[in-house]
Write a structure and sequence with these properties.
With 330 residues, the chain is an alpha/beta fold. The chain has helices at residues 13-25, 43-50, 64-73, 96-104, 175-180, 193-203, 229-246, 252-272, 276-297, 314-320, 326-329, and strands spanning 3-9, 30-36, 55-58, 80-84, 88-90, 108-117, 120-124, 132-134, 140-142, 145-146, 149-150, 161-162, 170-174, 207-218. Helix 6 packs parallel to helix 7 (229-246).
Length: 330
Amino acid sequence: MKIAVVILNWNGKKLLEQFLPSVVAFSKEATIYVADNASDDTSVNFLKSQFPEIKIIQNKANYGFAKGYNEALKHIKEPYYALINSDIEVTENWLIPILETFEENSKIVIIQPKILDYKNKTCFEYAGAAGGFIDQFGYPFCRGRIFNTIEKDNLQYDTKCSIFWASGACFFIRKSTFEKLNGFDTDFFAHQEEIDLCWRSFNLGFEILYHPKSVVYHVGGATLQQGKPLKTFLNFRNSLLMLTKNLPGNRVFPILFIRLCLDGLAGIQFMVQGKFSHCWAIIRAHFAFYLLFIQTYRKRGKFQSKSYFKTKSIVWLYYIKNGKVFEKLF
């Protein structure tokens, strides 16, 4: 087998029961692994009894998404990785276009499939949709999803195209590329570590592709629910870490200053909405960022591309210009 399907699990027995059957049924081209982050439920025993053909990698602790995958992938020899969340339902032949693309074009190192909403299969899913981009200030958005506006899949994004980042919900990458980039940044723990890895890949001149012929359905928020202060903390902190590592040298401090101010406005909005725990999460994220700033800055590569962003401000386009649909904006 040339491709390894790797599912990271932590106390996700119910999700494995629900979604693993589709992975097994439609992944004949792959070796399937479950990387377990020291679950204390019955996940591992369930896998051993119900899916003995699946290979289990047991991490020593709950390392989160970033380190969890980094540790697990050390044990996998296949040249291509398919990293998928445990709340992903795959479809027939989902791996074939990915394998063909990797084999045909060595310049493409990361691929994202079409990600649709498991709960509403006519719509794109928040985490990735039809491929991701960022604006000048590091705000991520997707073809098919800008902030909280999610489009229906009317086949409007059914052509292959280069993208800036691929969603970690279903993330295909060459083993050689993952190793060259030293994997995910473990300081992130979870959230936006895949955007950081894609940005580092982009800075090295590699190509990232969206492939619509591979289709998966994602529940979203099943492993860390939307609306949790922890999610707010990780998203705000990790966005600042990512900018520090990857922005062009002359833009690091000006962009960071603007982002810190915009984060302050987001905190005020949470206060007005009565979401005090989320406002506090932003404050904690900023202090955590300050503590990590020096060691993060030292991780900067030798080259940072100046052409990383799709638009100067997606916030301006969305909230001021009322630009809600990707294909009408770009």
